[in-house]
What we know:
The structure is a homodimer. Chain A has 12 helices and 8 strands. By secondary structure, chain A is of the alpha/beta class. Chain A has 2 domains: 170 residues, Rossmann fold (3-Layer(aba) Sandwich); 116 residues, 6-phosphogluconate dehydrogenase C-terminal like domain (6-phosphogluconate dehydrogenase C-terminal fold, Orthogonal Bundle). Chain A has an 8-stranded mixed sheet with strand order 3-2-1-4-5-6-7-8, sandwiched between helices. In chain A, helix 4 runs parallel beside helix 5 and helix 7 packs across helix 11. The longest helix of chain A has 29 residues. Chain A starts with a strand and ends with a helix. At the A-B interface, helix 7, helix 8, helix 9, helix 10 and helix 11 of A face helix 7, helix 8, helix 9, helix 10 and helix 11 of B.
Amino acid sequence: MVDQRLCIAGLGLMGGSLALALKGKTRQIIGVDRHAATRQQALADGAVDVVTKDLASGVAEADLVILATPVRTILSILRELPALRPDGCLVFDMGSTKLAINEAMSALPESFAALGGHPMCGKETAGYGAADADLFRDKTFILTRNQRSTEAVEEIILAMLAEIGANPLFLSAEHHDQLVATVSHLPYLLSAALMRFASAQEDPALWQTSASGFRDVSRLAGSDPHMLLDILLTNKTVVLEQLEAYSGELAAVKQLLAEEDEEALADWLSSAQRQYIGYRQAKKALESDNS
Amino acid sequence: MVDQRLCIAGLGLMGGSLALALKGKTRQIIGVDRHAATRQQALADGAVDVVTKDLASGVAEADLVILATPVRTILSILRELPALRPDGCLVFDMGSTKLAINEAMSALPESFAALGGHPMCGKETAGYGAADADLFRDKTFILTRNQRSTEAVEEIILAMLAEIGANPLFLSAEHHDQLVATVSHLPYLLSAALMRFASAQEDPALWQTSASGFRDVSRLAGSDPHMLLDILLTNKTVVLEQLEAYSGELAAVKQLLAEEDEEALADWLSSAQRQYIGYRQAKKALESDNS
C-alpha cells in the first residue's frame, strides 16, 4: 500500500501502466491527460479515481506528483511546479533521459523532494491503449538521485516499485544516459535507418522476402516519434558520440569485406556471436536472481 | 508424396528441418553430414533412412540431390558433382545467396537438371538440434532458375514445397541477392556491429539496463558465423553497396541531430514509423493471402 495521494501527469503507456499497476493499492490517483478519450478510458478502467486535463488542478492536492510525459514536457512541468505548488510536494518522473530532468529537479525550491526514475521496459506501441498493469513486473527500474532527493522520497518510491514488482537500480543520471543510449537510443536509430533504407528501394517483393530477422531489427522503428524526438534532443551529446563510434565499427567490417580478409572477417563475426551468447547468459542469470 | 530418392547434403537447421518435414513423404532420404552425432540423431529421429559422411556414396543412388550446406560448400560440391554422377541427376540447393550458385548450376553438364532455392525463415540457432519439421510452413521459399532448370525439376520441387507447406516465389538470382542483402545480410551486420559496440563498453550495468528493444535488434548477432562468412563473401558487391547507402542514412540523421533541426528530425522519425506500420500491414495481408 502506497499511503499517498498520487497525481500521474500523462496517462500514456508508462503513466497508464503505472496507474493500472497501483489500482487499489494507493489512497487516491488523480490522472492528468490532454486527451479526453484517454481520461474517460482510464476512469472507466478504475486506473484513476479522478481525471482532469488541467495540470494545475491535478497537482493541487497531490502528495506525490509523477511525471510520465515525454522528456521535454517533464522539463516544462518542472519549471511550472513551484508556482503551482508553493508549498512543495514529492516529485517523481518516468522520463527516458535523466540528466536534464535531474538538473531541473535539483533547481526546485527546497520545499520539494524529488527523485528521477526510468523503467527499462517498453513496447513499440505508445498510448494508454497499450498500457498493462504487469508492464514493470520483474523489470529493472532505474532511479537517479538529484540535489532534492531525500530518504523520505526514496522510501516512498521504493515501496511503490515493490508494489508494481519492479527491480530498483540506482545510477547517476550521466551513467543512465550513457547506458540507455547504447541499449535503446542507438538501436532505435539503427532500426529506423534500416526501415527508411529498405522502404526507399520500393521493391514490391521486399516484404515477401522478409522474415523474422528483419522484423526484429526493424521493430523499434515503430516507436513513437514524438517521444523519440525528446529523447534524442535531450541526450544529443551522448547519442552523437555513440553514433560516431558505431559508424566506425560498421566501417571496419566494410573494409574487411571489401578486402576479403577472410580470417579477420571470421574473427569479427565470431566475436559478435560470442558476445551475444555472453549477453543472453548474463540476462538469464539476472532474471533468475530476481525471481 | 515426393516419389524420389533424396540425398540431403548437410543436416543442419535447413537440411535437418527439410528431412523432418519430408519424413514418411518420400521414397527414401539419404542424409550426408560430417558430424557423427548429427548423423546418429537424424537416423534415430527417422528424419533420414540412411546416413553417411561420404558425399560420393550419398549422392551415388539419389534421384534428387539437395545441397543444404553453407554457400561455399555448395559451390564446391557442385564442382565435384559431374565426377561423382557422370549420369547426371536432379539438383536443388537451399543456399543463402543465389548468384554464384546459379552460375555453378548453369555450368553443370546437360545430364543434370537443377534449380536454386532459399527458404525465408531462420533462427539464430544453427545445427540439427534446432531443426523443426514446421520451419518452412507458411514461409516464402524463393526459387531461382538457371540454365539447367527444366520443367521436370521445377514440378518436383514445387510438389516438395507443397508437402512442407512453403510458398514458392520465383525470382532471378540477382534480384534475390539484392533483396536478402536488405532484409537479412545488412540487418545481420547492424546487429553484430551493435553487439560489438555494446560489449566494448565493458559496463557491468549494461545488461541490467537492456530490455526487449536491445534484445530484438541484437538477436541476429547470434547467427552462425561460419554460414555468415560464406554469405557475405558470395554477396560482397551488393552488401558493400548497401552498407554504403545505409551509412549515408545514418550520417543524415546524425547531422539533423547535431544541428538540432527539430522539424527535419521529426519528419525523419515519423516517416520511419509510417514505413514500419506499412511494412507490418503488408506482411499481415501476405499472411492472410497465404492462409
